[in-house]
Amino acid sequence: MGVYNNADTLGAALESILSQEGVDLEFIAIDDGSTDGSAAILDEAAEKDSRLKVVHKNNEGLTRALIDGCALASAPWIARQDADDVSLPGRLRRQLDRARQADVPVLVSCRAECVAPEGDVLFVTDGLDDPEAARRRVLRERRTLSAHGAMLFRKDVYQAVGGYRAEFYYAQDVDLSIRLAEAGRVAVVADVLYRFQFAPGTISGRKNRWPHAFYRLILQSQAARAAGRPDQAILRQALRLGRRCVECRRTSVSRFPAWYFMGNCLLAAKNPARAVHYFRRALAVRPWSLRAWIRWLQARRQTLHASVQEVGA
């Protein structure tokens, strides 16, 4: 687990892993130069539970933190956890059981629910019971199986394919998932065993150009490997892009795309009353957005219609 200024959510994330039953585990947390008290929370938790190993380092970003953490892992399987998410009871046991089945997948994920800052469930990731469908999802659609923090993968295969690559400041999970799927089978546990947050300021909630730019480079890298060509030039582009990310990281990012996305998710989930709430927040940021006004009106209309039907019933 990489940790950077996650004091508000860190306690729940730690407890969700340290309370997992049916597995022997070591929990490696990399404090990536936090300044909000996260370091003290980690150290206090490590004093109470010897399974938790904490490493403090200067801030270099999530990818570098994950590279450092995976390098320290001593078990044959490595599971991920993000510091603002929670693993539900039984997650690690269920994924490990699936990993040990006869088809020996190299990567096992699980279904996950995405929640908004106020607890509204925005969506649940796909089940993908068929391993071949799961592999197609990664290799052809170039999408991850679930949330990044829900991954569990074989350490030896992780090392063989080159692990997380430092050049990918964003979308490092997509890059790793593709290379793991190229090396072997992948699978998804059908039950919802992970909960991750979507909020302005989180990596998931940063709807800006940077992750998309890295994604394009990942596709170019995959195409180069498929053609038997080296991808060093692409990695150099990714490294330069990462340096630009670091330089621009303090630039404020509009919260409008995140609030608008959450409203759309809740409208699709047939929860128009809560969709109205998030569209209002989007309009508070960007009151001139015609599309947000249209969606707000749609959500209001559906909410009023549902109220009328309830009264009639």
Query: What is the residue-averaged pLDDT?
Result: 92
Strand tally, please? 9
- Strand-residue proportion: 15-25%
Q: What is the name of the CATH superfamily of the largest domain?
A: Spore Coat Polysaccharide Biosynthesis Protein SpsA, Chain A
Please, could you describe this protein's structure?
This protein is α/β, with parallel strands linked by helices. It folds into two domains: 2-197, Spore Coat Polysaccharide Biosynthesis Protein SpsA, Chain A; 256-312, Serine Threonine Protein Phosphatase 5, Tetratricopeptide repeat (Alpha Horseshoe), CATH 1.25.40. It is 50% helix and 15% strand. The chain is built from twelve helices and nine strands. The protein has helices at 7-18, 38-48, 62-72, 91-99, 131-139, 155-160, 172-183, 209-226, 232-248, 256-268, 272-285, 290-312, and strands spanning 2-3, 27-32, 52-57, 77-79, 86-87, 107-115, 121-124, 152-154, 186-197. The strands form two sheets. Strands 4, 5, 6, 7, 8 and 9 form a six-stranded mixed sheet that branches. Strands 1-2-3 form a three-stranded parallel sheet. Helix 1 packs parallel to helix 2 (38-48) and helix 10 (256-268) packs antiparallel against helix 11 (272-285). The radius of gyration is 20 Å and the shape is globular. The model has no long low-confidence stretch (mean pLDDT 92).
